[in-house]
Amino acid sequence: MATRKTATSPSRTTRKTPSVAAKRRKATPASSTAKAGAKLPKTAPKTVPKAAAASPAATKSAPITQPAAPSGKVKKPKLVRDSFSMPKEEYAQIDALKIRSARLGHPVKKSEVLRAGVKLLLSLNDAALLSALAQIPSLKTGRPKSAK
Predict the structure, then answer these.
(1) Which run of H or E residues covers position 133?
(2) Domain range holding 127?
(3) 41-52, pLDDT tens digit by residue?
(4) Can you tell me the distance from the alpha carbon of 88 to that of 5, in angstroms, rounded to the nearest whole number?
């Protein structure tokens, strides 16, 4: 019996790809490899506005900060998605508040009604908040069982 050598085919060999951290280690700073006429990296420092540079007294007393966002662009707040359970009667009251608001000429969404309620609760003093929360019965947490 002759022994036969089996050659490994290129398709069977596993090739390890470098991790993201390894790729970052291999990357060199743009200043060391920059060629004449090459584009600057996107993380280039921002220039100081002329109004701030013109007043040397303001720059000495105030710490260096990033310029404010342009007045046309407002940073959107990060939104959080959540779910909760509530009695049908109270859920119907949210719809009634939406209809009432629309009749007054200011249509709102359900989330806006809830956010307005939270804002009103925040404005209450401690005694008023406790009395308002005492009027709300506690519910069993979790998803309701489906009626099959």
Answers:
(1) helix 126-134
(2) 88-134
(3) 555 555 555 544
(4) 75
